[in-house]
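User: Batch of two.

Assistant: Item 1 of 2:
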Amino acid sequence: MKLLSVIIPCYNSQDYMRYCIESLLSGGERVEILIVNDGSTDQTAQIADEYARQYPTIIKAIHQENGGHGGAIHTGIRHASGIYFKVVDSDDWVDPRAYLKILDTLADFHAATECVDMIITNFVYEKEGAKYKKVMKYENVLPVGKVFTWEDVGTFRKAQYILMHSVIYRTQILKDCGLELPKHTFYVDNLFVYQPLGHVKKMYYMNVDFYRYLIGREGQSVQENIMIRRIDQQIKVNKLMIETMKTGNIQSPKLRAYMLHHLEIVTVVSFILLIRSGTKENLMKKKELWKYIRNQDVKMYRAFRYGFMGYLLNLPGRAGRRISVGAYKISQKVVGFN
C-alpha cells in the first residue's frame, strides 16, 4: 500500500506539468501519482502517458472528458489507493526536502498505527516577478509536531486560513464524508478543504514550506479580471460553503469558529469582486448575496454584516466602493493574493 496518493488535475497543461511531476517523483515508491487528464486538447495526454510508461509503479495516467477541477479531484479520490491524499495543481510544485520529511512522518504514523485525519503544512506564494515570497504559516495558531484536536487550535489572524495547498487528508475521510464538488466550476478548492472539516478529529502540523503555489501566470483562474468574469462560479462555491455550515457535522465550538472565519474570507472576496466589476448587474448580485446569507443564517449574517469587513463592504456610494476596494488592495499586498 502506498503512503500517499497525489492527484495532478491537468487541463491543457503541456507547458508546465513536467516540472510539477518531476518535483513529486522524488517521493519514490512510497507515493502514487495520479495524473488526471481532464479532456485536454494539447499534448497533456501524451505527456501523462509518457510518464506512466516510464514510471509504471508510481504514475498512473487517467483520461476523462472535461469535468473541471472538481470532476478531476473526484476521479482522483475514486482511484486513490494511498493512505493519505494530496492535490497538487499542474502549474504548482513541491519542495523535495519538505516532501521527504512529510513522507517520513506519514510512515511513522503508519508504523505506529496512529490515525491522523489531516496534516497541515506551510505553502509559499510563488508570485512571478515578486522578490519577496509570502509564506502562509500556522505556527502561531497550531501546535507544532504533535497530534492535536480542534480544542487545541488558537485564533487565526484575519488573512490566515487553511487552503488546499496546506492540507493532506486521510483518503478514507474524503471517501466517507460525502464530498461534493460541482463539475465545470472554478474555485472548488475551497470546498475541497471546507466540506470534510466536520469529519476531522485528529490533526498534525508540520512547520515546513512544502507547497509552492504559482500566482501571476497570464490566464490563471485567480487573476482578478478572470475571477470577475467567473463571478457566478465564485458565488456558487460561496453558497455551497454556507450550506456546509448549516448541514455539516460541526460539533466543536472551535471548529465552528474557524469555519466561520474561513467563510468570511471567501465571502469578502465575493463581495469585493462584485464591487470591483462596477456593473449594475453585479451590484445587484451583491445585495442578493447579503439576502441569501440572512435567509440561511441570521447569526452568520449579523456577524458578517456588522463586523469590520462588513462595514467596509457597505460604505455608501462610489466613494464608499473606492474605500472597500482600497482595503482589498492592501490585503492583496499583505497576503500575496494574485
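Item 2 of 2:
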Amino acid sequence: MDSFASGFAQVDKTSDAGSFVQYLDLIHSIPFFQECKAQSYQNLALSPGDSVLEIGCGNGIDLQKLAECVGTSGTAVGIDISSTMLSAARKNAEALGCSPGFLLCDGLHLAFPDATFHAVRSDRVIQHTCDPFVALKEIVRVTRPSGTVVIFEPDWGTYTLWPGEREICRNVMNFWCDNIPSGQVGRVLYAAFTDAGLESIDVHPYTLTLTDLALARRIFDLDTTFSLAAKKGIVSQSEIERWENELSNADSKGQFFSSLTFFLVTGKKL
C-alpha cells in the first residue's frame, strides 16, 4: 500500500505508479492550485529567450507553461526522478505540440553546470527531499547571477481535519507529516533561501480550504492514510471507524472542514 505522503520520492518503485500521475492531473484541475501556479509563473519574471528549469516536472503541465513564457528562442527543461512521470510529461507535451527538454535526474544532484538557468521553479517537490537546505543550495548553484528561484511547498504541520477527537486527529496528522521526508518544509523555506545566499526573498502563504469530504479524500489520500495509521498502531481500527462516521455525518450536514497552508517563496541570486 503506497501513500501519496511518501510515494512521490520513489514513484517508479510503487505498486501503481500511474496513480501518482492521475493524482497530479487532479491537482492541476483544482482552482486553488491553478491560482498558486499562475502566481509562481509570474514571479519567475521570464522573458522570451530565457532558460528555465523545472525541478520535479511531474506530468509536465507546469513545464509547458514555462516553455510558453520563454518562447521558441528560449530553453525550458524539466527534470524528475521518475521515468513514469517523464513519460507522461513527454506525451502531454507532444499532444500540445510543445517541445521542452526532459531529463531523468535527482534534484539534489542536478546534471547541469553552474549558472545555467535564468530561473528555477519547484512545486511541492522539496518536501520529498531529506534536506531542504541542500536542495536549495543545489538549485542556486545552477541559477545565473540575477536569476530567480521560486518554490511552492506545503507545511503539513498546518494540516487540519474536522470533526474528530483531538488526540486521534493529532496522532494521525502527525503520522502523515512524519511520513513525508520534509513534512514541515513550508516553515523552513525562508531559512533555506537565506542560507543559500538568495536575497529579496518574498514569502506568501496560501491556505487551501476544503468543505467536501470526497475531494479531501482524494487530495489528502485519507483512505490510505487511515489504513496505514491503523496498521502501524497509531490508532485502532475502531477509532478510525468512529472517526469516519463523524466525518461522514458532518459532511452530510455541510459542516466538514479541512485545510492546509502552502508557502510560495521567491528569491534572487546576486
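The longest strand covers residues 143-162.
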